[in-house]
């Protein structure tokens, strides 16, 4: 049996009881380390699960699927995935390979940012399509996310924006020399995300977003209520301009996500999120005047 | 501390390790039984958790929040919620009450249908807003879902349709006589859902959906891979017409959900779901000819 097991959002205790049983029954355990990061290291997972874990980067899950699937028809093998196995990245490819080798597959679900984003208080019903925002370079500023946000905003829907992560990047020099030396991981900050979004708004100038009258909610480490201090979940909301002006530390540690708030905003949601506002007065004023929420 | 704990999708083992610890630390445990159903009974949960559980229907969570929150500033109280606490229903109201009484709240996330729907193989990125479909009566056929589906389809996005559940319904006679006798729970079947959807399509006639050329995916008991036979997850896909013609038992046991497939369909997704097709040939033909997927 190949188990594909969602680890949830935060640390080793976010696995489900069913998932933990599957890990313990497995003769080999792989951790997919590409699409997201778990907030604990491999050793802590190994101690908790009582199992050795092989870190499998995306290349491996895609190109060395044979190794992962080896003898999985005779013994249990677990592939651990941060969040849910069908979160931002589906694992269609490895499931199809397993199927064609007659290996049974069982998926063990968990929370992912795609549903835990509800922690900001906005109804999940009113989210449109999710978008990804990649690091811009001087010469490469992909702006297709802007069309998706426009589509959502046109319907009054909220947009979950997933911010880029760079792991296993090589410097140009190391790449040129074929040296497999990797740069430290980089995580897009909320300020950078907002600045990229507003840059495209001013280039495209389609009035989809406005620094002063578009509300947004920044989330960091969703689901990590259990930690203390900087490792805790943090939610900060305000206008895009306000968010762009906050010092980086006000958003907590990565991973970050951003929600661009659409017009289908309920007054109770405004009250709920007010606790997280950079400035309560501005939050309420924009919600009332621009979003049309009836606040007392 | 008030813990609001997602139980996940299927049975007592879908709680996370963190959630289980919180339940065990709590002096009182409530199970919210309204918005969804867990597929195991209260006694099985009580045995597994080693705790007595009070079933709280929606009325209670809304009107007797005081009881749930009683002394939660001094001791741990858990409110268990099927799926994720911020799934289809947010729990904003009880969190706001807790806040105003100075009671700390911790949310423990889990899978919900809003992310586990990815099990059908479609990218979550390409889902639009989620809709609910309620039981029609002779005189009440709310059709606002149709506008939401049209909006999604216009953008090529998939729509997750959540099917109505009726629990604690009273017959007209019992209601009139004030007798608190409730009918057995009812769960909307896939056939009924498709029939209601097509009824509104023929009334509104806006050509959003077509019996023969709109693809859909029916899901039952998502995440319940662990059971056997009828308790297992089941996925069935085809045109709306094909789904409407299947016998009820082909869709497995409730709860059911339905995905209406939008045009942003990738050929790998077609191949993945083909395994679940009522008729592979039709599935592939419509995907190729109507959805424009390049299949070999």
From TrEMBL, chains A, B:
S-adenosyl-L-methionine binds at residues 9, 84, 87, 112-113, 163, 222, 256. Pathway: Protein modification; peptidyl-diphthamide biosynthesis. Its EC number is 2.1.1.314. This is diphthine methyl ester synthase. S-adenosyl-L-methionine-dependent methyltransferase that catalyzes four methylations of the modified target histidine residue in translation elongation factor 2 (EF-2), to form an intermediate called diphthine methyl ester. The four successive methylation reactions represent the second step of diphthamide biosynthesis. InterPro entries: 4pyrrol_Mease (IPR000878), 4pyrrol_Methylase_sf (IPR035996), 4pyrrole_Mease_sub1 (IPR014777), 4pyrrole_Mease_sub2 (IPR014776), Dphthn_synthase (IPR004551). The keyword DNA damage does not apply.
